[in-house]
Each structure stands twice: as C-alpha cells, then as structure tokens.
Amino acid sequence: MGCDPIIFVGMDLAYTGNHCYANDVVFPHETFRETEELTKKGSINTGSFIKKGVYGDNVLTLWKWIKEAQYITSYAQAHSSKSFVNCTEGGLGIEGVEHLTLSQAVEKYMKNEYDFFSWSHASVQYKPFHRLNKKLLKELFFEIQRSLLISLSLCEETSDLISSLFLEIKKRRGGRVCALEKKIEEKSRFLEKEMAYQQIIEPVSRVNSRILQRKINRIRELRASETQKSLETWKEIQGKIFFYRDTAGVNLLCLKEALDLL
User: Fold this and answer.
1) Which of 46, 97, 195, 216 is positioned for an S-S bond with 42, CB 3.0–4.6 A?
2) Same domain, yes or no, for 151 and 251?
3) Same domain for 38 and 153?
4) Per-residue confidence at 169, pLDDT binned at 50, 70, 90?
C-alpha cells in the first residue's frame, strides 16, 4: 500500500470479446470461446452469464469475478486515503473505483519523474554488504546449485513416472495407477521441501499454476470418459513439471556463469 495512485490494468473480470485470456498469454487457438460454450451449464466457477459492463454493454462474467470486484470496492472504501484507478479498457468494471484510460491516468496522476536507477545505485553504495565476501558468496551459490540439481532430478523422475502412468491408465490397471500416483505425490513432497523450489521455481510458476487449474477445471466439464479426462489432466500436470524442470535448468546455467566470474 505504499503506492498512490494504485492503478489496475488488464482486470476486465469478464470474457471480453469471448476471450479467456489476453493475446500472447496462451496460444491464439486457446483464447476464443463461443458464447454457447461459455454459458453452458456447469459449476458456479465455470458457468458464465451476462451482466452490464463498465461501458454499459453486455459482458460475460462469472460469480467469482463479481465477488472479486465487490472485494476491491470494499477495499478501496476502507482505504479512502489512497486513490484507486481502473485503467482496464472494457470488462465488468469496479463500482466506486474511478475508471480512466491509462493515458488519462498518466496525465492526471503521474506528475513527477524519478531516477530509480541512480536511487538504487546510491542505496547499494551507501549500504554495503559488510558480511558478504567472495567465499561466502560461493558457498551460497553452491548451496543453491545443489538444490537446483536435486529439483531438476526430481522433475525428471516425476515426468518419467507420469509417462508410465499414461500407459497404466490406458490399460485400466487400477492398482498400478494408484501405486504410481502415490510415487508421484511422494516426489512432489520432496520437491516442495527444496530451497530452490521454494525460492526460485514456485515464485516464477504462480501464473502457470493458475492457468493449469483453469485447464483442469475445463477438463472436468468435458463430455468424455473418465479415462480420457484422467489422461488429459495428467498431460497438463506433466506440462507443469516440464516447466519446473526448464526453470531449474535455466537457473543452473545462469548460476554457472555467475560462479565462473567469481
């Protein structure tokens, strides 16, 4: 809450133009949905309905988005000393929150310029890390490297288990499926305990995790066999593991370059 004004951008809280995501968030063929598909009967979190938007037009939204808008309204009212501005072009709108285009908000509120580069540089210079030396830095880097390597190995092992699980699901071997699922859960628990997962992998994967949950919810609504739903769900989970693996791999490469410079 240190910022003032607080500007919201991209929070349409609706299927604006029948799109589930903004352009470039996911592949183009995954963004658009027909109205019939969006409004078909489903759970309270998946069945959309028509409501008046911020421009007085009809938009498709969900109950959870309406509740989110109401929460922001309440929050803004409780913190009236701050300015809240919604610069999202279109969508549901947020009652009690000023609605402007981003250019209008810039003109109205952004009167001062700050040299953040110089400010951050000065902060580092005037507050040196007295306790940090090359030896300690190397020790920290090696600790991170070790955890990243363990995380990478766990991701590869988990991916292999999921590949085996696909075969058992197709063959409908319930006992083997349960056994493999337990092994996958065990690997996940080990991964979540790793420092590299907690400090590096999980933070950069949060948006991906939300998208994954939406995809899984969509799979549950499919008119397909339980076997097919299970396969599709595990396919998405394996994709998440691939993302974890790649994140660990990229950070290992960056860490190696940093160690080479020490």
Assistant:
1) 46
2) yes
3) no
4) very high
pLDDT greater than 80 at residue 81 = yes
Q: Give the residue carrying structure tokens 């009212």.
A: 77
Domain containing residue 84: 6-113
Average pLDDT score over residue span 223-241: 92
Amino acid identity, position 157: E
CA–CA–CA angle 211, 215, 216 (5° rounding): 115
d(C-alpha 255, C-alpha 262), whole Å? 11
Mean pLDDT of the chain: 85
Is 244 inside any structural domain?
yes
Same domain, 109 and 194: no
Q: Is residue 148 part of a domain?
A: yes
Q: Are residues 144 and 230 in the same domain?
A: yes
The top-scoring range by mean pLDDT among 33-47, 53-67, 221-235 is 221-235
Residue that finishes a domain, picked among 113, 147, 165: 113
DSSP 194-226: SHHIIIIIHHHTHHHHHHHHHHHHHHHTSSS-H
Average pLDDT rounded to a whole number, residues 2-18:
80
Residue pair 95/73 in contact (Cβ under 8 Å)? The answer is yes
Mean pLDDT of 119-126: 80
Sheet harboring 98-99: ordered strands across?
6-8, 84-86, 98-99
User: Is position 124 within any domain?
Assistant: no
Q: Is the model more confident about 121 or about 186? A: 186
